[in-house]
Every structure is written in structure tokens, then in C-alpha cells.
Amino acid sequence: MKKLLLTLFIALGFQSAWACTNLIVGKKASADGSVMCTYNCDGFGFSGSLSYSPPGQHAEGELIAIHGWGPSHEGQYVKQVPYTYNVVGLMNERQVTIVETTFDGRLELVNRDGLLDYFSLMRLALQRSSTAREAIKCMAELVEEYGYNSSGETITICDPNEAWIMEIIGKGPDRKGAVWVALRIPDDCICAHANLSRIRQFPQEKGRSINSKQLAKINKPEVECIYAYDVISFAREKGFFSGKDADFSFREAYCPIDFENVRYADARVWSFFRHHYSHEEMDKYLPYINGDFDQCDHLPLWIKPDKPLSMRDLQNDMRDHFEGNALDMTADMTAGPWGMPIRPLPMHFKDSDSVAYFRERPIACQQSGFTMTCQMRSWLPDDVGGVTWFNCDDANMVAYVPLYCCITQVPDAFRPENNPRNEFSDKSAFWMNNWVANMIYPRYSLMIGDLRKAQKELEDYYFADQDSVLAAIKDMMPADRQSYLNRKSVAYTEKMMQRWDKLAKYLIVKYNDQIVKHTDENGQFTRWGYDTPGYDRQFIDAIGKATGDRYRLKEVIERRER
């Protein structure tokens, strides 16, 4: 009898992952030679946690039951492979990392009868692949054999040597498989995607590119583009494209742009690029961000940054609310009395005169279930070379905790069972982070400094400790290294939870009842003394414009009239 293996997909969490962000850094664009990528998994209604699947040897004939979040597939299975890798979060023991953002695209191409949703596809590839190229081949073969049931998806695939961007969309009802394109990101460049298709024209010449009928050639180093053999012919068949093959654009065919998807999605990419390239040059793309597609209709797929990025640079990029650029969310009265960069949903709203407005959508947002920045280092053993810097909730409001790709023990605070959706728990990283964040959001400019202090304290410690970790494992056997890195990952997480518990209790005392208690140079409360905080300047200025003389001091009005 065939043995049935159940793969654990955290379906509830990823149903809501409709608006995520990936930032990607090639090894020659990073300060230390590592390949890096990020993931904010954004969506209301779920509590974040760290998924895990152990390694395994499997007998011939074993099957995996697929339990995604598409239609019911009871009794449907995928063939198992002889060996599956250890997977922590979205990185496996060989440092292969796969993250994603959803672009939807042409919804008529969703095939609800396909077996594999995008997250099932990613997880299977992580369990089966030792390189990014193997992962692309694995995903291409899986959707061809079993079908694909998600909408359009942009997927980041990285290993210690390469970073790739892959875009995929189904073929519609009753059509198995998918159309897709994968491009290797130049080593000296950075790339990003955020819920909008980014691949336009791609190389089709022999040598540099292969199609899905030539996957045996995928490991040739000169191959920098891989695509479904029918990605262009299918678009012609559906009436999405009618020009020359050389002019074919995946984005124009499968994900036509409009103001909303550009402003909500590519604006995040633009802001990331602007952090690491000439502001003057990047601001030339503002007409595109503002919907003037006659003047400009796309961003570059990747850019060469002004200087190499560090992991800390990338973590700060994940905390972006357009600060300092034309879309700055803290710079007008919509930020409220205390410069809050958070906005409530819906994305669209109307005033009393039925005038329609929209809100910005930055990289960092309150609805993140979890966030990660992933580092893959070719010069180190895989078990210590691959690090996922992880936490639950909004990237802006948490400290990133380093977790090694070889660990077999998920720290308690990140375990799914300790992060319930509808019940607060002080054992939950998600709820402890939310407790602090939701105290700070309404009085952001007053309180964010205290969070930044705790955040920096923890991350300074984690980064400083990495040299001692490398020294400690230098002469260890692999099993001893794994045990040591398990203990370190658990200890790092416990340190974060203790610091956040201390921070939460400190904030409720310091800012109790809308005042700010005095503290000494060590942050300790003085016996007496407090300040009554004022509003941010742009909000004060807006009050007079909106209310006239209602709140003007009477003696000031009388003095003016005299």
C-alpha cells in the first residue's frame, strides 16, 4: 500500500496574502557578497507564524496529499520524490529561498480545477530543489503535470549564487498548466516586485534563453532566461497580443496596467529604487506613478545601486512609508495629530460630496502577518550560510530575529499553535508585536522613538553576535552545528519576546492618559514631572483651515478686531 504523506500548508494565512512585497539583491550588489531577498506577507485576518517541514527519505510510490486553499481536492495527490529537504519558513537547508507577490492579472485565466495553488507550488519546490534553477524546473514541471489554480503571481527564487524573478499565470478553465517567464537578475543589480507584473520583453535568442521544452539545459550558466514554450502563442490565441515575437511583453499581455495597480504596487518598487539610486533620476518616473502613462509606462526591471546594500539597509527598506519623497505618508494632515504613517482601509473612500479619494499603499503596513529578510552566503556551509531574519507583524514595528536554515526546532513564539488568530497570548510573537504596535500607531511621532531604541538594541546585538556564531561552529561536526544553531535561534527569539514585553509595559506607563512622563538619561521615570504633547505642525495648520474661528482663543479674536 502506498504511504500517504500530508504536507502542511498554512492555508488560512496565505489566503490573505494578496498584497505583499519582495526586494531582491544580487551578490555583487550586496555589501558582503550574499544574495538577499525579502518578504512582507500582508493580509488582514490572520496571525503570522513560521512554517516548517522536516527533511525525509521517501519510498517509491509515496504520495503527498495536497491541501491548499483553492477548491476541494480530496483524494488528489502529488508524487513524492526520494529525498525532501528541511524547510524553515521559505528557505531550505541548501539556502534555496522562494517568496512571492500576487498580481492577479487576467482573472479569466484562473483554473479552479488545477491542483496546485502558488504556495503549494513554492513549498514543493523548496522541498525538492538544491538550486534556484532546479526550483524553476520543478515548478514548471509540476504545473504542467498537475495544473495551476491561482491567479497571476510573481515569484522570487534565490540561492547563494543567483537571484531569479519568475512570473506565472494560468490558462483558464479546462486548460492544465500555466504560461510563465523566469529571468536571472544580474549579480550587480537590485530588483523588486509588489503585486504588479514586472517582466515585459525578455531574451528569446538561442544560448541566453531556453523554453520549457529544453529544461535539460537549465544548468548551463549562459542561460539567463527560461520561459513556457507557448507563452507567446497562447497570448496570440487569446487575443492578448498580435505583434512580432521580439516585441512581446508578458506584462502587457497578461497584466495590463491602470492607475490603481501602478500607484498601489509599483510605487513601492519606485521608493525602494529611490533609496539606492539618484533621486533626480528616479523622480523622472513620477509621471508613471501618478498615472501619466503617455509620458512613461514602466519602471526599469532592475537597477545597479549607487553602492552595495547591507542586510540592515534592506531591513530598513522594508520599513518604508515613502518618507522623504513625493508620496510621504507622514507629511500632511492625513497623518493625523501625530504623524501616523498608517492608514485604515478601504483603499478608496468618498467625502460627503461624493468626491472619491484613495490612500497610499507603502511597503510597510499594519496588516502584515509576518516579515522576513533572507540572506544566502556561498562562502559558508549551508547550515549557517542561510539565515532568515524573521518576525511576525509589521516590519516597521518589529525587530528582525535571525533563524538559521538548518534548524529543526521552531522557536515557541513563532509556532503556529502559539499564534492563535482570535485570542491574545503573551507567548505569541504576533500578539506581543501587535500589542506594542497598536499602542504606538495613534501617537506615532510621540512614541516611535522608544520602539526604535528597543529595535536597534536587539538588532545591534544580533548582528554583533554573528561573528561569535561563526567562530563557535568553525570546528564543529554538522550534527553539533545544527544543535548549536537550534539553541541560538531559540535564544534569539526568547530575547526578543522578553524585550518586547518590557517595552509594552514601559509604553503604557510613560504615555498613560495622553501625557508623557519624564525620564532620566537612562530611561528611568523621575518621581514627578510630565509633558502635555502638542500636535504635529501640519495637523495644527489644518485645524484652522478646517474649523475657522471655532477653536481660536477669544481674546486673540477680540484683539485682532480692535
Structure, explained:
This protein has 15 helices and 25 strands. With 562 residues, it is of the alpha+beta class. The chain has a domain at 4-200 and 216-327. A seven-stranded antiparallel beta sheet has the order 18-15-2-3-21-22-23. The longest helix is centred in the last third of the chain and has 33 residues, at 478-510.
Question: How do you describe this structure in short?
Answer:
31% of the residues lie in helices and 19% in strands. The chain has 562 residues and is α+β, with helices and mostly antiparallel strands. The protein has a domain at 4-200 and 216-327.
Topology (elements, then pairings):
Elements: E1 4-6, H1 11-15, E2 22-25, E3 35-42, E4 52-53, E5 56-57, E6 63-65, E7 77-79, E8 83-84, E9 87-88, E10 91-92, E11 97-104, H2 118-128, H3 132-146, E12 152-158, E13 163-170, E14 178-184, E15 190-193, E16 209-211, E17 225-227, H4 231-238, H5 250-254, H6 259-275, H7 279-282, H8 286-289, E18 302-303, H9 311-317, E19 348-350, E20 356-358, E21 368-376, H10 382-385, E22 387-392, E23 401-404, H11 429-440, H12 444-473, H13 478-510, E24 516-519, E25 525-531, H14 537-547, H15 554-561
Parallel strand pairs: 1-6, 16-17
Antiparallel strand pairs: 2-3, 2-15, 3-21, 4-9, 5-8, 6-7, 9-10, 11-12, 12-13, 13-14, 14-17, 15-18, 19-20, 21-22, 22-23, 24-25
**Biggest sheet record:** 7 strands, antiparallel
Q: What is the number of strand segments?
A: 25
**Estimated share of beta-strand residues:** 15-25%
Mean pLDDT: 93
N/C terminus separation: 98 Å
- Would you identify the regions where 5 or more consecutive residues have pLDDT less than 50? 1-17
Any idea what the shape is? globular
